[in-house]
């Protein structure tokens, strides 16, 4: 029984029973609710917390504590809530007539309750045919009600069951959406399945459900799930495999078990859930065995095999002298003299089936690709151009004057099956494939690309190995270079025009471990560092720069041209907090839509977070919100001149984009970038992150923040090594997988 807030000891855990009368606030994503309740003693109380929204009329039993809010007074802070069927006739009518059961409105509800009174719910549950006693309900309608009532009961039961297992409202709804009536069965049979199928449920939640359901912590099923999860998590961090010892350590930590996990690992290997490969010499400090999830092992094996096959075949030109002559003629006709390394790269592309060309900004990659394409076409080859992102493909197309596609489009990705239509049995039609921005290509995509390459095709891979590696697993570009097995050319010379850009000079200095140079002179520069030690002041300064100083001095539009790039999400100068500050400064008014902590406002700059092949918008695409529906559940975004409606789940893949992380900006370029650097972000202050951020700016780069943070970033060379064995497989061709 609830206590009177006036007399209760405010910190005691207690319970409260009553009926919901109104909802003042509800966040559909988290389930956070502020509501008024009429207690069973007829008093009004405010309840606050995360719980499934009950249907009107249901009786609620809350557990929690009374707290005193400084402004709103006593509130019941809910830690648990269970909905119980209403008993009063009034409650029953409100419950049945609230719309929870399709087809029953308040009038019909009153008629039903009028006949069965307090016994209504029992009749509906156990004695449905008696509904005939209610006047005015025909046979067909009755059957419709029966089905609707059944569905409602099941859904309600599942939601309550999930709630009992500590699953919040939003997640519970996602589970029900995914499994329907099967939800309870799946959760009971194998809670770990949830972590695989349902977004927002990780291993920890699934594990909590399993342990709550009585599973022994050392149960082999649990250990197996832990091993699998450790590998999946590693893949999210970019690893293709984990050395066996490392996997056992990580799984032990995850499961909080000191027991021997070897037997469970052996079982998982025997059942083919995991795959183990042994490499020689030992690649990982005394460890020779790497454990994979099968798909990644297959991808690595296939990529290595296909590359070895390409390396064993002669290039499209077998005569170096002839190739040199052709190139010389082309240079003369275009009035370009390639630098020796550029020439070496073009010739290597002609003389081998696969070549890697890497170099920083302004080292002439695009120029040599243009010549190579010309040369190949003149020799009768058909050249395909591709890049991992839409923006990179567009740039490649513009630079070469040819059509360039995203790799997904080139390989004819089918969103519904998740497969590529171009593959080994239906290869690409073209004799040479040139791929730009290869640093962003992960191992699974690389493997698919290789298998779709025609048997007699050639591959030119161009990229900057100092950029951040791909988001997905693997470090393809670095591994190819590290293997020493694939012909490769590193471009180091920065050409004069590019050298004049301080952005380019700074980027190269950063790579060499030197602080960038800047001068705050009256003449406009393209690279600045604005020192500020305090993180909060840094955030304020970023807002000031973006909203007034840069637009005034450089004539750039803050909403279109300037991108703030943060090393991290969190912290005073992190993407989250800065994004909100910038939104407030740049676009404070207008119709808005709230989604959890995100606010979308008409006029906002937004970023798409996932590839959406149906609507043809891709991860990292930027757009502007052009319209928000007055009732606030739909908005329109203009992406590249195209108006795209975004509704419900689409909104989960959208975020305001005034400030984004450097990782999100990979492969994109912006007229101006502003980068806050604060020591709070020390974990991510790494050279390749700073380098990636700086090279995203075309006309202006402004670093703002602490000198120490800048110095930390420049000097921190540690690139977290990604576990994988592509380089090993290539180095020791004919090795372990034969
Ligand atoms: N051999 C060359 N001689 C003189 N100038 C060159 C040569 N190669 C390239 N350049 C010039 O250097 C500049 C940078 O070249 P390019 O755009 O090809 O480099 P990039 O490596 O693709 O650069 P980014 O990665 O920044 O796009 C261009 O202005 C280009 O005209």
TrEMBL record:
Top-level taxon of origin: Bacteria
ATP-dependent RecD2 DNA helicase-like helix-hairpin-helix domain ranges (all copies): 152-240
Biological processes per GO annotation: DNA recombination
Enzyme Commission identifier(s): 5.6.2.3
Cellular component, GO annotation: exodeoxyribonuclease V complex
Statement: the UniProt record of this protein carries the keyword Lipoprotein: no
MF term (GO), any: 5'-3' DNA helicase activity
Keywords, alphabetical: ATP-binding, DNA-binding, Helicase, Hydrolase, Isomerase, Nucleotide-binding
Record field: catalytic activity: ATP + H2O = ADP + phosphate + H(+)
Residues annotated as domain ATP-dependent RecD2 DNA helicase SH3: 580-639
ATP-dependent RecD2 DNA helicase OB-fold domain span: 15-86
Domain UvrD-like helicase C-terminal, residue spans: 656-704
Pfam families assigned to the protein according to its UniProt record, in alphabetical order: AAA_19, HHH_RecD2, OB_YrrC, SH3_13, UvrD_C_2
Binding-site list for ATP: 362-366
PANTHER family: DNA HELICASE B (PTHR43788:SF6), DNA2/NAM7 HELICASE FAMILY MEMBER (PTHR43788)
Family: Belongs to the RecD family. RecD2 subfamily.
Function of the protein: DNA-dependent ATPase and ATP-dependent 5'-3' DNA helicase. Has no activity on blunt DNA or DNA with 3'-overhangs, requires at least 10 bases of 5'-ssDNA for helicase activity.
Name of the protein: ATP-dependent RecD2 DNA helicase
Organism of this sequence: Aminomonas paucivorans DSM 12260
Upper lineage: Bacteria, Thermotogati, Synergistota, Synergistia, Synergistales
């Amino acid at each position: 029984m609830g206590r009177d807030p006036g007399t209760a000891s405010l910190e005691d855990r207690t319970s409260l029973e009553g009926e919901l009368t109104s909802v003042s606030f509800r966040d559909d994503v988290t389930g956070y609710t502020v509501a008024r309740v009429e207690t069973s003693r007829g008093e009004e109380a405010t309840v606050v917390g995360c719980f499934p929204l009950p249907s009107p009329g249901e009786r609620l039993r809350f557990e929690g504590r009374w707290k005193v809010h400084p402004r709103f007074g006593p509130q019941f802070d809910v830690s648990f809530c269970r909905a119980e069927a209403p008993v009063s006739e009034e409650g029953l009518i409100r419950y049945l007539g609230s719309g929870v059961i399709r087809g029953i409105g308040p009038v019909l509800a009153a008629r039903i309750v009028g006949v069965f009174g307090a016994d209504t719910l029992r009749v509906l549950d156990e004695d449905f045919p008696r509904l005939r006693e209610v006047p005015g309900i025909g046979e067909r309608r009755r059957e419709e009600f029966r089905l609707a009532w059944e569905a409602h009961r099941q859904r309600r039961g599942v939601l309550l069951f999930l709630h009992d297992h500590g699953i919040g409202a939003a997640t519970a709804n996602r589970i029900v959406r995914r499994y329907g009536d099967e939800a309870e069965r799946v959760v009971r049979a194998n809670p770990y399945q949830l972590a695989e199928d349902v977004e927002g449920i990780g291993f920890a939640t699934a594990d909590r459900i399993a342990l709550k359901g009585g599973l022994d912590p050392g149960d082999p099923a649990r250990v197996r799930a832990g091993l699998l999860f450790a590998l999946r998590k590693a893949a999210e961090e970019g690893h293709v495999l984990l050395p066996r010892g490392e996997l056992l350590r990580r799984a032990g930590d995850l499961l909080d078990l000191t027991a021997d996990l070897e037997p469970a690992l052996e079982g998982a290997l025997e059942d083919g859930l995991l795959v183990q490969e042994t490499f020689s010499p030992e690649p990982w400090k005394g460890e020779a065995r790497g454990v994979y999830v099968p798909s990644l092992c297959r991808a690595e094996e296939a990529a290595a095999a296909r590359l070895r096959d390409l390396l064993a075949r002669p290039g499209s030109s077998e005569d170096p002298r002839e190739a040199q002559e052709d190139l010389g003629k082309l240079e003369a006709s275009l009035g370009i003299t390639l630098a020796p390394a550029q020439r070496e790269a073009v010739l290597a592309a002609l003389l081998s089936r696969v070549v890697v060309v890497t170099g920083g900004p302004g080292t002439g990659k695009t120029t040599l690709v243009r010549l190579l394409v010309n040369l190949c076409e003149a020799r009768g080859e058909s050249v395909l151009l591709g890049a991992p992102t839409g923006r990179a493909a567009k740039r490649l197309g513009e630079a070469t004057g040819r059509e360039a596609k995203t790799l997904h489009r080139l390989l004819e990705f089918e969103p519904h099956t998740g497969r590529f239509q171009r593959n080994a049995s239906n290869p690409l039609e073209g004799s040479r494939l040139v791929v730009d921005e290869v640093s962003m290509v992960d191992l699974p995509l690389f493997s698919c690309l290789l298998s779709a390459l025609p048997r007699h095709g050639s591959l030119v891979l161009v990229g900057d190995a100092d950029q951040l590696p791909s988001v997905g697993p693997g470090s393809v570009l670095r591994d190819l270079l590290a293997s020493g097995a694939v012909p490769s050319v590193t471009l180091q010379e920065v050409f004069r025009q590019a050298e004049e850009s301080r952005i380019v000079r700074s980027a190269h200095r950063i790579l060499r471990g030197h602080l960038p140079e800047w001068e705050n002179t009256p003449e406009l520069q393209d690279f600045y560092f604005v020192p500020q030690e305090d993180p909060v002041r840094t955030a304020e300064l970023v807002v000031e720069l973006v909203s007034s100083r840069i637009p005034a001095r450089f004539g750039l539009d803050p909403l279109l041209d300037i991108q703030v790039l943060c090393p991290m999400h969190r912290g005073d100068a992190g993407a989250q907090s800065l994004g909100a500050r910038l939104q407030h400064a740049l676009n404070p008014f207008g119709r808005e839509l709230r989604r959890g902590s995100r606010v979308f406002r008409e006029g906002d700059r937004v970023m798409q977070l996932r590839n959406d092949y149906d609507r043809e918008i891709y991860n990292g695409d930027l757009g502007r919100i052009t319209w928000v529906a007055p009732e606030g559940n739909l908005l329109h975004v203009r992406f590249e001149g195209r108006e795209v409606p975004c509704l419900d789940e689409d909104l989960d893949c959208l975020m305001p984009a005034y400030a984004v992380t450097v990782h999100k900006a990979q492969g994109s370029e912006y007229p101006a970038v502003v980068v806050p650097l604060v020591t709070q972000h020390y974990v991510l202050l790494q050279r390749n992150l700073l380098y990636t951020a700086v090279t995203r700016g075309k006309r202006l780069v402004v670093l703002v923040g602490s000198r120490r943070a800048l110095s930390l970033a420049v000097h921190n060379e540690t690139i977290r090594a990604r576990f994988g064995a592509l380089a090993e497989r290539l180095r020791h061709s004919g090795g372990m997988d034969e």
